[in-house]
Design a protein that fits this description.
The chain is α/β, with parallel strands linked by helices and 344 residues long. The chain has two domains: 126 residues, Aspartate Aminotransferase, domain 1 (Alpha-Beta Complex), CATH 3.90.1150; 196 residues, 3-Layer(aba) Sandwich (Aspartate Aminotransferase, domain 2). The protein is built from eleven helices and 13 strands. The strands form three sheets. It has a seven-stranded mixed beta sheet, with helices on both faces. α2 packs parallel to α8.
Length: 344
Amino acid sequence: MLEHGGNLQDAIARFERPRAQWLDLSTGINPQPYPVPPLAADVWHRLPEVSPELVVAACAYYAAPLILPIAGTQAAIQTLPRLRPPTRLVVAAPSYAEHAHRWSCAGHTVREVFYDALESAVEQCDVMIVCNPNNPTGETVPPDTLLGWAASLASRGGWLVVDEAFADVTPEQSIAARSDQPGVVVLRSVGKFFGLAGLRLGFVAAQASLLAQLADAIGPWSVGRPAQEIGVRALTDLAWQDVTRAELTSSGARLKTLLKASGIASSGTALFQWWPEQAPERFHRHMAEHGIWTRLFLGNARGIRLGLPGNEADWQRLEHALAGWQTERSTSHNAFVMDQPDQN
């Protein structure tokens, strides 16, 4: 099992602090989720056939010609590798680790490539996976560039899989509208922008033949009726979406400014910030000792990711903990300098 953000149970056990005392900033999930409306009683009773209203709402929201509802994009991430024979795969790195992990487990040859080297890697693979915007760094690839890569891959029967989990605030970055182009596979989710990660609702936009294969591999009744009902309402609530985009954009800028004032140069999206950290374990522990759970990245993405606080008290709590980190880092640096031998 790979480690993910949101693993608050680990924090509770490790630091012996009850759940109610934690501020969980380890995910990029909107801390102000879509208000779930009351549901009719029969959504719990009948088998969950695919709702035509959900498909229509999702196609309109994502501007996708065709779309398949699934039980969260993780279902597609785990199923897509089974639809191809052993193949050469390139995954943009650092990235959401499940992509490389699931394709590797399915017997494919996986190579992780940094974003600035993806262009040259297109001709060296059959499938390429790109998170756009990237999780955790926030890096982006222009839509026209992605579509060019997709055309190149499709010319030899390949795919470009684009995970757009964090594209809702900047829909101009999406290529879902061109997902009927050969080789294009787009993954979308209501978990991040709508803050409904527990709903387990996602979508795949692609050509009809690929969606049919995917639907058959996943099987029937994969998305519960409560999720379908809530999904329709969230995807069609344009007023809530407009207000939320503006609020998240403002909050994302505030987080970046707060980190900068703490001496941290970060990158990211409206929903999170990430930065390479020389001592990520120390920072992670420092924040945990203040009851703030962060996402610790090791390996090729050695750093920290922070999500958004949900209210003013949480913002002040984060600011206080960051001020403490500045003091701790400064004290450690001064102690190191004083310990060095005199060179005169």
